[in-house]
Write a structure and sequence with these properties.
The structure holds 2 protein chains of 2 kinds. Chain A is 0% helix and 60% strand. By secondary structure, chain A is an all-beta fold. In chain A, a hairpin with a 2-residue loop joins strand 6 and strand 7. Chain A starts with a strand and ends with a strand. Chain B is mostly beta strands. In chain B, the strands form 2 sheets. In chain B, strands 2, 4, 5, 6, 9, 10 and 11 form a 7-stranded mixed sheet that branches. In chain B, strand 5 (44-50) and strand 6 (53-56) form a beta hairpin. The chains are: A mainly beta, B mainly beta. The A-B interface holds A 4, 31-32, 34, 41-46, 49, 51, 89, 91, 93, 97-100, 102-105 and B 4, 40-45, 56, 58, 91, 93, 99, 102-103, 105-111.
Chain lengths: 112, 117
């Protein structure tokens, strides 16, 4: 079954610290992997889109990595800010129907 | 507009009532998607439009759910005879490219939170 699993489920860090969120997937065939940020009460906002051939992609303080061999991705947040508090969702496009398959997200809380 | 707009922002319906949720995609966007997001979960696919054509409705949970996009822009998701299990956030997303353009980003609206009492 095509699945996207994220860890941890939730995370609390202090402002200014770094953190790394994990995503493992079993989707096959694979088209691309996306990370979205979803603030409470808002729709998801795209952070990065990575294809099979891309190992890393950055967007400001966000850096995503992809290992297509092990089917793992990570999202690293550097020098966290209070505004980084949100749910971070890993999304894989693929499978027989090439649809977007969403993970359940990691809920990040950045505290002062 | 500047982004995907959804209305109403919140909707409370009594069980058995019909509801209609509206989505205004970004102007010129070909693809439009509806998703259902339960609390603490990721969005689940409901249906996909390419312009006015509904190309995939495999995610609609029952025949009580109906979506349309008659002129290829605004879309409406209608839920008939609402049930408590329909309570969720309904997200609309649009994309400039067709679904076959695998790497095009999706732009989401802020959703409609439906509560069925």
């Amino acid at each position: 079954k095509n699945q996207v699993e994220q860890s941890p489920q939730s995370l609390i860090i202090l402002e200014g610290k770094n953190c790394t969120l994990q995503c493992n997937y079993t989707v096959s065939p694979f088209s691309n992997l996306r990370w979205y940020k979803q603030d409470t009460g808002r729709g998801p906002v795209s952070l990065t889109i990575m294809t099979f051939s891309e190992n890393t992609k950055s967007n400001g303080r966000y850096t995503a990595t992809l290992d297509a061999d092990t089917k793992q991705s990570s999202l690293h947040i550097t020098a966290s800010q209070l505004s980084d508090s949100a749910s971070y969702i890993c999304v894989v496009r693929g499978g027989a129907t090439n649809k977007l398959i969403f993970g359940t997200g990691t809920l990040l809380a950045v505290q002062p | 507009g500047a982004g995907v707009s959804q209305s109403p922002r919140y909707k409370v319906a009594k069980r058995g009532q019909d509801v209609a949720l509206r989505c205004d995609p970004i102007s010129g966007h070909v693809s439009l998607f509806w998703y259902q997001q339960a609390l603490g979960q990721g969005p689940e696919f409901l249906t996909y439009f390419q312009n006015e054509a509904q190309l995939d409705k495999s995610g609609l949970p029952s025949d009580r759910f109906f979506a349309e996009r008659p002129e290829g822009s605004v879309s409406t998701l209608k839920i008939q005879r609402t049930q408590q299990e329909d309570s969720a956030v309904y997200l609309c997303a649009s994309s400039f490219s067709r679904l076959s353009s695998y790497n095009s980003p999706l732009h989401f609206g802020n959703g409609t939170r439906l509560t069925v009492t």
